[in-house]
């Protein structure tokens, strides 16, 4: 990425974050929607024809596990509620959407994700893999995008703007929570709250560092044999204190983590929704 691309990506992400609380009142052309069904959060992003973030919504949820929809009714209810609220807030039609799945997801599981989104009276016009969606925000032409969410680590390698390799393995931020839960003898939801508390993260880092190192080892293995100039880190797990530094120490290539890594993929999904 050039310095201009870094600035542009940071501005887009920051704009999307602000639009979650303060949607735009005017925009250009037809609105495009991106729906990200994550292991820890469901995020809906809305952009206009120019790619400008217009609105967004986020709901913590446990309806997906390891990239697969495990609570179909719960997922449908959450997406419907978020989309209906956005329609009401914007006073506009939301007709078409894109969604995303982990790399290598089979047709059956991809269809489940599509059906959840279509339950909100959205026509799904594109289904992409999550790291590829993130690259739409970051403007990556050459490098690897690593998307670590709650349940999985997804990897896409790009050459001259084309995806040449994808992989996905079931290790992510939920595994941090399980380690914390086991160590302190806490219910999952209490361990999750502890994990998300920035003030507690430095003391929790030694506990979850082995999971971080496992993620780094997964990424390192999949990068073997590829000429990757930079690794781009996205996904909510990278909001945890010290994770980016662990990746830097264990990979042989430079790493870059944009601001608000949780929001990169949902925004990219919306950008992957065709404007026509």
Summarize the SSE layout with pairings.
Layout: H1 3-21, E1 32-37, E2 41-47, E3 53-60, E4 64-65, E5 68-69, H2 72-90, E6 96-101, H3 107-118, E7 123-129, H4 130-138, E8 143-148, E9 153-159, E10 162-169, H5 173-184, H6 188-196, H7 201-223, E11 231-234, H8 243-250, E12 255-256, H9 261-271
Parallel strand pairs: 1-6, 6-7, 8-11, 11-12
Antiparallel strand pairs: 1-2, 2-3, 4-5, 8-9, 9-10
Helix pairs in contact: 4-9, 5-6, 5-7, 7-8
Task: Kindly describe this structure.
Helix 7 runs parallel beside helix 8. The two termini are 28 Å apart. The chain has helices at residues 3-21, 72-90, 107-118, 130-138, 173-184, 188-196, 201-223, 243-250, 261-271, and strands at residues 32-37, 41-47, 53-60, 64-65, 68-69, 96-101, 123-129, 143-148, 153-159, 162-169, 231-234, 255-256. The strands form 3 sheets. A 5-stranded mixed sheet has the order 3-2-1-6-7, with helices on both faces. The protein has 276 residues and is of the alpha/beta class. The chain has 2 domains: 3-136 and 262-272, ATPase, nucleotide binding domain (Nucleotidyltransferase, domain 5, 2-Layer Sandwich), CATH 3.30.420.40; 140-256, Nucleotidyltransferase, domain 5. The chain contains 9 helices and 12 strands. The protein is globular.
**Overall 3D form:** globular
Main beta-sheet strand count, sense and barrel state = 5 strands, mixed
Head-to-tail CA distance between termini = 28 Å
Name the CATH superfamily assignment of the largest domain: ATPase, nucleotide binding domain
CATH class of the largest domain: Alpha Beta
Radius of gyration: 18 Å
The total count of strands amounts to 12
Helix- and strand-based class?
Answer: alpha/beta
The name CATH uses for the topology of the largest domain is Nucleotidyltransferase, domain 5
Mean pLDDT across all residues, rounded? Answer: 92
**Model regions low in confidence, pLDDT < 50 over at least 5 residues:** none
The main sheet orders its strands as 3-2-1-6-7
Number of domains: 2
State the helicity in percent bands: 40-55%
Task: Quickly give the CATH architecture of the largest domain.
Answer: 2-Layer Sandwich
- Write the H/E string, N to C: HEEEEEHEHEHEEEHHHEHEH
- Compute the number of helices: 9
Percent strand = 15-25%
């Amino acid at each position: 990425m050039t310095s201009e691309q870094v600035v542009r990506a940071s501005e887009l992400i920051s704009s999307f974050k602000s639009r979650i609380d303060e949607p735009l009142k005017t925009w250009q052309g037809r609105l495009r929607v991106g729906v990200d069904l994550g292991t820890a959060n469901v995020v809906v992003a809305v952009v206009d024809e120019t790619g400008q973030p217009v609105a967004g919504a986020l709901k913590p949820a446990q309806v997906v596990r390891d990239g697969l929809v495990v609570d179909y009714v719960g997922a449908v209810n959450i997406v419907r509620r978020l989309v209906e609220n956005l329609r009401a807030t914007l006073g506009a039609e939301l007709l078409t959407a894109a969604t995303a799945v982990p790399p290598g997801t089979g047709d059956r599981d991809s269809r489940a994700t599509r059906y959840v989104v279509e339950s909100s009276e959205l026509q799904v016009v594109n289904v992409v893999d999550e790291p590829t969606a993130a690259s739409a925000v970051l403007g990556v032409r050459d490098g690897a995008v690593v998307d670590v969410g709650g349940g999985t680590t997804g990897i896409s390698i790009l050459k001259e703007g084309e995806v040449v390799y994808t992989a996905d393995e079931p290790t992510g931020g939920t595994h941090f929570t399980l380690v914390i839960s086991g160590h302190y003898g806490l219910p999952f939801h209490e361990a999750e709250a502890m994990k998300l508390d920035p003030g507690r993260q430095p003391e929790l880092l030694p506990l979850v560092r082995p999971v971080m190192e496992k993620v780094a080892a997964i990424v390192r293995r999949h990068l073997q044999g590829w000429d990757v100039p930079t690794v781009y880190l996205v996904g909510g797990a990278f909001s945890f204190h010290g994770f980016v530094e662990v990746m830097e120490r264990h990979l042989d290539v430079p790493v870059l983590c944009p601001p608000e890594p949780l929001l990169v993929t949902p925004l990219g999904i919306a950008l992957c929704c065709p404007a026509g």
